[in-house]
Design a protein that fits this description.
Number of strands of chain B: 14
CATH architecture of the largest domain in chain C: 2-Layer Sandwich
Oligomer: heterotrimer
CATH superfamily of the largest domain in chain C: Aldehyde oxidase/xanthine dehydrogenase, molybdopterin binding domain
Radius of gyration of chain B: 19 Å
Distance between the termini of chain B: 49 Å
Number of helices of chain C: 20
Largest interface: A-C, 57 and 55 residues
Mean pLDDT of chain C: 95
Strand order of the largest sheet of chain C: 3-5-1-12-9-10-11
Shape of chain B: globular
Strand content of chain C: 25-35%
Chains: A alpha+beta (157), B alpha+beta (290), C alpha+beta (780)
Order of helices and strands of chain B: EHEHEEEHHHHHHEEHEEEEEEEHHH
Strand content of chain B: 15-25%
């Protein structure tokens, strides 16, 4: 499978969950396992562009797929992406454990919806639990990221 | 919370998948995995063989013809985003937006949800509402199962162990039909405590030409208010009809559990049926079917 | 010193790694040869264990060891976990063994540890271990536990009573005798568990040749963990190192030392390889400590103006299976009742019982929400009975700023008299009411009612003992590379210590907060530490950093003054060096100074210099410092489904001087979300046999993004006189009073139904029953 643009080939036991494969076999420990029953969303990654729970998918099922994780979000020069930067600016993370899932969910959503409103983002984020922030700063970060992405696009046009 | 060991099969053709599920004891078909894999992680489910349907061709499709046909492996997300379906069966998306979350709908399938048959799940209720017909396939052949014969009991379907659900189909309701789906869950995307769905076609006199009402979450399986539906035909679309529907819903049998009493579920059945009826009334003639 | 960073909303140092997926959580630790563990846990709430058959499990390929109590190394085997919070009022003390020894007292108790090549295999093996139980009656409901003929929660106990002690001041009998009004209420309060997103976990590595134990732990205080290992194994201080890197939330229960940690250490000793155990979410629901249940039967006495005369009653607290936190939790609850109000007389019989459920631990707020709830509900009751406005009743009872310092008359959990050091409670509430336009709400409520909508407002005040001792330390060191490093025993789980402590230090050292490396939670970096709990880090560690910063700056100036032949008073620390004020070319860099300070190999030290430019300070607060808050909550109730939507929360918080408003506000908003969970969602259920019924995040409901409104945070700022930086704690203030405010708001919304709410959480079915009349659910 390809993860963040790099190709990996491994033999794995069929029961190996994708989240464990990423973390243990590929040492991509940025994706977190928070509940292993598909509720908390900390393990959210993008597979072929779609967000999903990597604790509810076996690694073998991602054979040949293109996977994106938090490790692949930063810009090529290592600087933070707009969304990451907005999390930083708005204090959108405290302990940081749910953050990979939050970022991946919003990454997918902002790719598809350039002009989200607050309620829409709150609904999208119901798939990701956070115990530290009360979500407010995460929602603000998402809204600000959308604004900045639009501004960047307009500037480029 | 790691799944137990199993032998993994990833057929690409339906015939192979059917042969595999027929050939192995304690085999489970893996669709989107949004219910089965948690059960496996908890080791409540420990299949020896897992037949992964995700690579099987021909099981994911949306056909909005005379009848609506959905491949069993169609992702909930694809249904959610299908503008054809949104026009033809608007209640489907209204219900689907309550199914889990974006990440689970991206992966979860229509067929998987129907086969899992959680008592308060939206998709089985919607299919029951539409009198859907399910197509099951095994090495013994193809079988059609009406939705009202599919649910046998608590999370128990009439699928044989060697059968796979391949397709769901149902007749579309007439242009301008009214629809409404309301549920109550504690949090967004949680399994509902109770849900209600309503479809209504009105005739030119403003009377009920056809009506269907389903209530989910009350007992082991979703139920239709068949007696009320039959009696309602020809009645005027008026507030009294809404009240009668709600009363009928709140007289249904219900189960208690550690979280909610039967009384409360019945009460919700009445409230939600009333709300669904009201939505359906308001939408008659304005539904986007074109 | 100019205050450039103290008080500034600078962005966090922690984020760079966490946002890139480069955090270092305990499950990210990977050591050569590392094995994986899981536990065989009790399926019975109370039973004697007749035998454990591990033969089938041991035969499984990849299984390395299965360790039960009898296999543990001495002296761990014959010891129980030490109790670090003794209290003379405790009549019986039961602490757990590392692995259960013959008797199990709650579902989830660790009976055996399975060590295997992978977690998958370990779980395969655990399923094959057969435990022979002889079931005993289980005590589940604390109200049953106090009966004379109640079954015993512990086979060796006299009864189930841990403590029965009065907490009191003043003459309650006299107060009640003369009172114009006496009102009685019974309260039930449940506070779930922490449910941090990262479950617990440790990696243990025993180095047999060096006889050293290294533990990586997800914790709230690595020094406390170290101490337990030292005491359990008779180690000396240098034989144990506990390292806590990033922690995915703590909220109290990650501060406890759990038997699993000792079992993992034992496993590493026995198998000779590193062993990792990461708690999974199912274990988290049965083996991580919870706060759970309190029953309060209370009477309040008030005069004709609604002023408090006395409060009396009984608190029955469910302590769970063991008493690892002593009386800390109920004691805080009992002493937090008074809040910001003048209460002339108080008598509370504090009864703590053991039950066959997982041990109780403080959770964010730690009993304060319950104490606050009792008083705030009584305030609302007085208002209702006397026909007064709810905020007005509170206003009439406030302790006035001129009364500070105010001795409430009780001993707080810190062992000192509870003396409020600062605060302006009337102002706090007035600001909160002004910001929410509280006086206009009643009109809004009535207007909504005419549209068939049920909205309500509630307000609640809390005073919170924060910054508990005994101390926290900080070492600031100028390294010979010129880098500044700050070491502390305070161990963060998202509270941003690396940023806030660097802010405090940076102002003293003339550098950016970003230039200071902050090392937390490594027991090898500083000898003593207590960890993060009781909203104590800013007070304790913050003050220590401040004092150490001053000391290092003084040392730096002294050395530079010698070298530059000027007076230290003419020097200023600036841009990573020291320079003569106004003469920037007369300058010594930190690197230069640090190198000179350590001396030259073999050469005599010059003058009276001590080696190194570093300082360590342990700030020891003389008593707790008392923060306060006023919460205003608005809700809308769907009277048909019983659903409550919190539509607005405002918090006016006073934590003294604010080091970083961005971070403090984040703490408060997050705390509010936790309180919303406690008010409306979170409930751990058990059946009559003590089997937990809520064991997934689908059954136990943590608030989602759609359940939490935007929270407005404002501050009154009354600096604490008790520490050099004037701060008070902020980590729990968001949670404490919001629960009472929300439930008051729900009651207000349900005014047409004459609702009287005396419990938390409030569930939708309860609301429907109220709306439909006494305990009835009406058919449509």
């Amino acid at each position: 499978m390809s993860v963040n643009g790099r190709t990996y080939e491994r033999d794995v036991e069929p029961r190996m969950l994708l989240v464990d494969f990423l973390r243990q076999d590929l040492d991509l420990t940025g994706t977190h396992a928070g509940c292993e029953h598909g509720v908390c969303g900390a393990c959210t990654v993008l597979v072929n562009g779609r967000s999903l729970r990597s604790c509810l998918m076996f690694a073998v099922q991602a054979n040949g797929a293109s996977v994106e994780t938090i490790e692949g979000l930063a810009n090529a020069d290592g600087s933070l992406s707009i969304l990451q930067e907005c999390f930083h600016d708005h204090h959108g993370l405290q302990c940081g454990f749910c953050t990979p899932g939050m970022l991946m969910t919003l990454t997918e959503h902002l790719r598809e919806n350039a002009t989200p409103d607050e309620q829409e983002l709150r609904v999208v984020l119901t798939g990701n639990l956070c115990r530290c922030t009360g979500y407010q700063a995460i929602v603000e970060a998402g809204l600000d990221a959308a604004r900045r992405m639009r501004a960047k696009k307009e500037a480029a046009e | 919370m790691k799944p137990g060991p199993f032998t993994y099969h990833d057929p690409t053709e339906l015939a192979d998948a059917v042969a595999l599920i027929g050939a192995h004891e304690n085999a489970r078909a893996l669709a989107g995995g949004q219910s089965l894999v948690p059960m496996m992680n908890f080791r409540y489910a420990m299949p020896d063989h897992l037949i992964d349907l995700n690579g099987v061709s021909g099981l994911s499709f949306i056909d909005c013809g005379e009848r609506i046909r959905l491949g069993a492996m169609t992702r909930q997300r694809d249904v959610e985003f299908s503008s054809d379906l949104q026009h033809a069966v608007p209640i489907l998306r209204e219900a689907l937006l309550n199914v889990g979350h974006r990440q689970t709908r991206n992966r979860g399938t229509i067929g998987g949800s129907i086969c899992n048959l959680d008592p308060s799940a939206e998709m089985p209720a919607i299919m029951l509402l539409h009198d859907a017909e399910l197509t099951a396939q095994s090495t013994r052949g193809v079988r059609k199962i009406p939705m009202n014969k599919f649910a046998l009991g608590f999370m128990t379907t009439s699928l044989e162990p060697d059968e796979l659900l391949t397709e769901i189909s149902f007749a579309r309701w007439g242009k301008g039909h009214g629809y409404g789906f309301h549920e109550y869950a504690r949090r967004h995307g949680d399994f509902a405590i109770c849900s209600a769905g309503v479809l209504i076609e009105a005739d030119s006199r403003g009377e009920v030409a056809r009506i269907a009402i389903v209530v989910g979450g009350l007992g082991a399986t979703p139920v239709r208010l068949s007696a009320f539906e039959a009696a309602a035909k020809g009645h005027r679309l008026a507030d009294e009809l809404i009240a009668e529907a709600a009363a009928a819903a709140s007289r249904m049998d219900a189960l208690s559990d550690a979280h909610f009493s039967a009384d409360y579920r019945r009460h919700l059945a009445g409230v939600l049926t009333r709300r669904a009826m009201k939505s359906a009334f308001e939408r008659i003639g304005v539904a986007a079917y074109v | 010193m100019s205050e450039k960073y103290f008080g500034a909303s600078v962005k966090r140092k922690e984020d760079a790694a966490l946002l890139r997926g480069k955090g270092k959580f305990v499950d990210d630790v990977k050591l050569p040869g590392m094995l994986h563990a899981c536990f065989v846990r009790s399926s019975s709430a109370h039973a004697m264990i007749r035998g454990i058959d591990k033969s089938a499990a041991l035969a499984l390929p990849g299984v390395i060891a299965i360790i039960t109590h009898d296999d543990l190394p001495e002296p761990m085997r014959s010891r129980r976990l030490p109790l670090y919070v003794p209290n003379p009022n405790m009549k019986q003390v039961f602490m757990p063994c590392v692995l259960a020894d013959g008797e199990t007292v709650f579902v989830g108790e660790a009976l055996a540890i399975v060590v295997a090549e992978s977690r998958y295999i370990a779980e395969d093996a655990a399923a094959l271990v057969i435990v022979d139980y002889e079931d005993l009656p289980a005590i589940v409901d604390p109200r049953d536990a106090i009966a004379d003929d109640a079954p015993l929660a512990q086979a060796g106990a006299k009864n189930n009573i841990v403590c029965n002690v009065p907490v009191r001041f003043g003459d309650t009998d006299a107060a009640f005798a003369k009172a114009k009004h006496v009102f009685r209420e019974s309260f039930f309060m449940h506070r779930g568990g922490p449910f941090f997103m990262e479950c617990r976990g440790v990696v243990g590595q025993w180095d047999a040749s060096a006889e050293k134990l290294t533990m990586y732990a997800s914790s709230q205080g690595s020094h406390r963990f170290k101490r337990t290992f030292v005491d359990l194994c008779d180690f000396d201080e240098n034989q144990v190192q506990v390292i806590t890197n990033d922690v995915g939330g703590g909220f109290g229960p990650k501060g406890s030392f759990y038997v699993e940690y000792a079992a993992v250490a034992a496993a590493s000793m026995l198998v000779g390889r590193p062993v990792k155990w990461i708690e999974d979410r199912r274990e988290n629901f049965v083996a991580t400590q919870q706060e759970r249940d309190q029953y309060w039967d209370m009477e309040v006495a008030a005069d004709e103006y609604g002023k408090l005369l006395g409060l009396r009653g009984r608190l029955l607290h469910d302590g769970g299976a063991y008493v690892t936190w002593g009386l800390v939790l109920p004691w805080i609850a009992a002493t937090s009742v008074i809040g910001p109000y003048v209460l002339p007389a108080y008598h509370l019989d504090l009864v703590v019982v053991m039950t066959n459920k997982i041990t109780c631990s403080p959770v964010r707020g730690a009993g304060r929400p319950q104490g606050c709830f009792v008083m705030e509900r009584m305030m609302d009751r007085i208002a209702r009975e006397l026909g007064l406005d709810r905020a007005e009743v509170r206003r009439r009872n406030f302790i006035q700023p001129a009364q500070m310092p105010y001795n409430i008359g009780l001993t707080f959990r810190d062992g000192k008299q509870a003396i409020y050091d600062s605060g302006d409670y009337p102002l706090s509430q007035q600001m909160a009411l002004d910001h929410t336009n509280y006086p206009a709400f009643e009109e809004r409520r009535k207007a909504a009612l005419r549209e068939g909508r049920y909205i309500g407002i509630g307000t609640a005040n809390a005073v919170e003992g924060t910054g508990l001792g005994p101390y926290e330390g900080a070492t600031i060191r100028l390294s010979t590379s010129g880098k500044i490093v700050l070491y502390t025993g305070a161990t963060p789980q998202g509270q941003s210590h690396q940023t806030t402590l660097a802010q405090v230090a940076a102002d003293h050292l003339g550098v950016s907060y970003e230039d200071i490396r902050v090392v937390t939670g490594d027991t090898n970096s500083i000898p003593f530490g207590m960890g993060t709990f009781a909203s104590r880090t800013a007070v304790n560690a913050g003050s220590s950093v401040h004092l150490a910063g001053i000391e290092v700056a003084t040392k730096i100036k002294k050395l530079a003054a010698e070298l530059l032949e000027v007076s230290p008073d003419d020097l200023e620390l600036k841009n990573g060096g020291v320079e003569v004020r106004g003469v920037p070319e007369m300058r010594k860099s930190f690197r230069e100074l640090a190198n000179i300070s350590v001396g030259l190999y073999g050469f005599s030290m010059k003058g009276d210099r001590d080696p190194g430019l570093e300082a360590t300070s342990y700030f020891k607060p003389e008593q707790s410092t008392y923060a306060n808050s006023c919460h205003v909550a608005e809700v809308e109730v769907d009277i048909e489904t019983g659903h409550v939507q919190v539509t607005r929360v405002l918090v006016n918080h006073d934590c003294g001087r604010v080091i970083n408003p961005l971070i403090v506000n984040g703490q408060i908003v997050g705390g509010v979300a936790h309180g919303i969970g406690n008010a409306l969602f979170e409930h751990l259920l058990f059946d009559e046999n003590g089997q937990p019924l809520t064991t997934t995040l689908g059954d136990y409901l943590i608030p989602m993004a759609t359940d939490v409104p935007n929270v407005d945070v404002i501050h009154t700022e009354t600096p604490s006189p008790l520490n050099p930086i004037g701060v008070k704690g902020a980590g729990e203030g968001g949670t404490i009073a919001v629960i009472a405010a929300i439930i008051s708001a729900v009651e207000n919304a349900l005014t047409p139904f004459d609702a009287k709410l005396t419990n938390m959480p409030i569930m939708p079915e309860q609301i429907v029953r109220i709306v439909n009349g006494t305990n009835k659910i009406a058919a449509e």
